[in-house]
Design brief:
- The protein is of the alpha/beta class.
- It is built from twelve helices and ten strands.
- Strands 3-2-1-4-6-5 form a six-stranded mixed beta sheet, with helices on both faces. It has a four-stranded antiparallel beta barrel with strand order 7-8-10-9.
- Helix 2 packs across helix 3 and helix 8 packs antiparallel against helix 9.
- The termini are far apart.
Length: about 300
């Protein structure tokens, strides 16, 4: 292999720039369309990389005015502290309204059963989200899901319609020919909108690099105590404690995705910069969720089942 086989050419650089510009333009178009066609939209923000990009796009779409919607986080109660700190700082910096719906409140009200200490609360988020949508009468929820995350996500289009029970039926998908979107819903129904639907994980990171978007520190290599469980590296925390048969080690790791700390695995990495992360992802042959989310790894229908229940 020669140097010219790996070195990016001027044409490659222009193509990437044009590709990112097209993705950005379409995402901003979707944000504006949803805001204009909906009476009470909301933007879902977890503090993760995809929602950080989504928030950045919302700034481009609506500044210098305020967002035409509040920002909503569904809090499992098992969050990485670095992510919560980033969430609060970023929304405060923008001066926007942050709503937090907590899974623990759903448990306390008897809406869902507590899975027990150290068990994932990811699936419980669906009920908490649907209750928040009902309480605030939201008719559109904008999220950062991408089609390359999971096979079930690839079945959805930019607009995903949910019935009065918040359920998703793939057979009710509406056509989106020539990027024409029909967002009308009946009373009690709502729509999920995914402006990043056509993006890949690599697109997201290249856009982060281009735009200089800040992220929580756990997306970059750092040393922390971890243990191996079911083939995954879990960060030791108040919710993840070693059993007598497990060994804790301090390793250099980073996270490709963030979620409930009980089921979100780290990857061994020395990538401390955006450029290094991009190179690492470009060489990877596994999806971020397939490699690092325990609740998605052992069942091909896990995500689809949850989406039918009202999940993101």
């Amino acid at each position: 292999m020669t140097a010219t086989d790996t070195a990016p050419t001027a044409t490659d650089t222009r193509f990437r720039a044009d590709h990112l510009a097209l993705l950005e333009s379409h995402a901003i178009f979707v944000l504006r369309e949803v805001a204009s066609e909906s009476e009470r939209p909301v933007l879902l923000f977890s503090g993760g990389k995809d929602s950080a990009v989504l928030l950045h796009l919302a700034v481009k779409a609506f500044r210098p005015g305020r967002f035409p919607f509040p920002v909503l986080h569904i809090d499992t109660g098992h969050n990485f502290p670095e992510v919560l700190a980033f969430r609060d700082a970023r929304v405060a910096e923008l001066g926007e309204e942050l709503l937090v719906a907590r899974v623990q409140d759903s448990i306390d009200r008897g809406r869902v059963a507590d899975p027990g200490p150290g068990r994932s609360r990811n699936r419980l988020q669906a009920v908490t989200l649907l209750d928040a949508i009902t309480e605030h009468r939201f008719d559109a929820a904008i999220g950062g899901a991408r089609r390359d995350e999971d096979k079930a996500r690839a079945k959805e289009r930019v607009l995903s319609f949910r019935d009065t029970f918040g359920q998703w039926d793939p057979k009710r998908q509406r056509p989106e020919l020539w990027r024409l979107y029909q967002g009308r819903v009946l009373p009690g129904e709502h729509v999920r909108a995914f402006p990043l639907s056509d993006w890949t994980e690599l697109d997201v990171w290249r856009y982060i690099e281009r735009e200089g978007i800040e992220l929580p520190s756990i997306y970059f290599s750092h040393r922390r105590p971890v243990l191996e469980r079911d083939g995954m590296l879990l960060a030791v925390s108040e919710w993840v404690q070693p059993s007598p048969a497990e060994t804790v080690e301090v390793a250099s790791v980073r996270f490709r995705t963030v979620g409930d700390a009980t089921c979100t695995g780290a990857v061994r990495s020395e990538a401390r910069t955006v450029e290094a992360v991009i190179a690492e992802i470009a060489a990877s042959r596994t999806s971020e969720r397939g490699a690092t989310r325990a609740d998605d790894r052992f069942s091909e229908s896990a995500m689809e089942d949850r989406k039918r229940e009202g999940y993101f």
